[in-house]
Amino acid sequence: MRKLPVWLGGAIASLVFTTSAYAACDVNKPGYELTGDEAEAVYDCLKSDLQAGYQKGSKRWIPEAFVKDYPGWTKASAFPAAPGFHGGRFLVTYVNSIGADEYLKYKPENVSIPAGTQIAKESFAIDDDGKVTKGPLFLMEKVAAGKSPKTDDWYYMMVAPNGSPQAVNVFTACSECHLENFGEQGGLGYPVEDARIK
Ligand code: HEC
To answer: Is the CB–ligand 1 distance for residue 191 below 6 Å?
Structure first.
């Protein structure tokens, strides 16, 4: 193969860098081959930018404090894991003080999550070439009994990586999967077993 002049190589390298803002966090193997430690290293690299993105702009119908405060809550994920749901993304879960005790028991049944519990789940993706992209912030809030019987009194919300709230049909896009698959455990999916902080 013909060798590129040094100056052109440099120009291509900087072009790649500007079009892929997270080149700094990219890895040299497919996302599905990453160990927990390697996924955690990507998260460490990405975290401040990911969280700053979620914070940007008006949250409209989503409580501002929910998105602002969650990084200070109890973390339920020891490292980001990609269970194949939520678009195969790597997930990191935080729970507020009202729900943390009960959530972190990861009970398979008889779950009694108190009203006022809020859960935030960050996400990012690593494709088969090791390229990192930011994913949405997924939110769940347990509301007062009887307020939303169809969703077992869970409110579902979603924020894009650029901070804009995403209007989704929460029944078909969120609640059906949670209730059909995890109805027994209070509608909670929990991080995969290895990735749980106990
Ligand atoms: C196809 C099934 C499916 C759909 C659809 C789905 N989820 Fe989940 N969700 C899961 C699974 C599985 C977990 C646990 C996996 C993990 O966190 O590693 C989970 C976990 C969560 C959590 C952390 C609390 C918990 O259950 O442990 C939040 C918050 C969440 N989802 C929000 C949402 C929102 C908001 C939507 C809709 C925009 C949604 N989910 C759609 C399967 C789904």
So the answer is: yes
